[in-house]
Amino acid sequence: MSTYEQTFENASIWAIFWRFLLISIGSIFIGVVLILTFMGQHATLISLVTDGLIYFLMYKVTLSQMKKHSLSINALSRPLPETERSLFPVLGLTALTAIVAYSFIYFFMTLLTFIPVLFDLIMPHLIDISFTEELPFFYLFVVAVFFAPVVEEIIFRGYILNKWVDKYGVKKGIIFSSVVFMIIHLQSLFIPQLIVGLLCGLLYVKFNNLLYPIFFHAVYNFIVIMPSAFIHYGNPEEAQETLLAIQDTLPVEFVLTSILFLVSLPLLVYVSKRFFKSLRKTNSPYYENILLNE
């Protein structure tokens, strides 16, 4: 382990960013070619192929940048303890976070009904990014539960968080990496993904093991996408009409879900404080794992 760098301080975030941008552009081009080749058929399969390609290449780029800077891939995680009982409280934290995230969307829309100017301005865009594209559950399951948790945690916690913790300290490293994580998840209305990013960062720093944020991320995504297996919004026009109509007549389920958000958010804050109350670290997970293996 002594041949490896002890910190991520010299690792390049920009090198990761511009390569990801090229990967995204290239994958979009491949997707367009495949759609034209199959004349618009097999859209779900094509999306799986292109998204899978994006995640695979992002994973390879991240690991190649680590090797370039003489960083140990193994030191991203320390060995698991003999018992995995610590995953049970993480599971409870994850379920509570998913409830907050799911109810936040309804709370936000309910709040907009009391501000007509903002409702008319924001609601059409909210519908466009969140409700009009109904993707098959199989696609959501594969991408959200398998691809995204593993690759995104390696990138945002394993690479970016370690980099910024080594450079700016634990608190700023968690916050900065979470803000970037939030920004790339536009369709989630930012706040839920900010919460997810913060909790994944805290879990990584607490346990020094990527398994915990990966587990949290995968279970969270699974809970959030589960309603799509049973609830169908119909075509985009019907969904838009239904949601725009809540300004005139607010459905009872919106009120109840908003109340659920107002109850579950303080509970999540309380549980998180209890769960992470003993967290007093000044080093990155990578640095601590390097020292452990020397």
Description:
The protein has a domain at 85-283. The model has no long low-confidence stretch (mean pLDDT 88). It is globular. The chain contains eleven helices and no strands. It has 294 residues and is mostly helical.
Compile the SSE list and pairings:
Blueprint lengths: L12 H25 L5 H26 L18 H26 L3 H15 L6 H32 L1 H14 L7 H17 L3 H15 L10 H9 L7 H24 L9 H9 L1
Task: Report the sheet-strand fraction.
Answer: under 5%
Class by SSE composition: mainly alpha
Poorly predicted parts: none
Number of discrete helical segments: 11
> How confident is the prediction overall: mean pLDDT?
88
The shape, in one word, is globular
Query: How many strands, which pairing sense, and closed or not: the largest β-sheet?
Result: none
The Rg value, from CA coordinates, equals 21 Å
> Got a strand count?
0
Helix and strand run: HHHHHHHHHHH
The share of residues in helices is over 70%
Distance between the termini: 6 Å
Structural descriptors:
mainly alpha; 0% strand; 294 residues; 72% helix; single chain
Explain briefly what this protein structure is.
By secondary structure, the chain is an all-alpha fold. The chain has helices spanning 13-37, 43-68, 87-112, 116-130, 137-168, 170-183, 191-207, 211-225, 236-244, 252-275, 285-293.
